[in-house]
Specification:
The chain has 7 helices and 8 strands. By secondary structure, it is α+β, with helices and mostly antiparallel strands. It has one domain: 3-Layer(aba) Sandwich (L-fuculose-1-phosphate Aldolase). An 8-stranded mixed beta sheet has the order 4-3-2-1-5-8-7-6, sandwiched between helices.
Length: 237
Amino acid sequence: MARRKAHARLRRALIDACLRMNELGINQGSSGNISVRVEDGFLITPSGVPYDKMTPDQTVEMDMDGGYFGDWLPSSEWRFHYDILRTRPEAVAIVHTHSNYSTTLSCLRKEIPAFHYMIGVSGGDSIRCAEYATFGTQKLSDNILKALKDRTATLIGNHGMVCFGPTIDKALWLAVEVETLAFQYWHALQVGKPVILSKAEMNRILARFKTYGKQADELSDTKQSALAVTPPPRRDG
């Protein structure tokens, strides 16, 4: 009982993020799943429980040896959540969805190239597509880890997408960005062959993305990277 009541705020946040994921149109039903790191393990959505019926005590706590606590089984995709959190210490929250355009491209086994500079939000000059493997298997997890090398997001062959971030909110934001890019790329392909940005340009963009979205108090050390934008002069300081 004490364990089920632990991390009450995060358990509620996990459910809220699942509901938000569907409200945003980047997932349908209970097909996706979300996890968040806690001390000595992580919380993950349970298998087969509709988000609008899910209660905090149904969210599942797992340890970093791959075991779980409580009466509810974790999501069938717990393996890749576990492996990402185990091998990528910067990952705090993971969002997996079957969003429409990301899934469409994944069924074509297409990566998303640098047709738009916002591809840089995933950490590289493309959003790869992991090779297909049966859902819930170790092989799928291995394929996802390979596709996530130096990246924070990937499509999953004939399946969907997965991404991670330093908070639940930021991981959810990234999931929306990936789906938006998939939507734009798919539409561009209907008209012609999109122009792909050069590696040199993407290197400049990636350097700027190190400070992307940050405010002045977060930019104490900008000597090692380019500012995302050159701010205008402040008049009241």
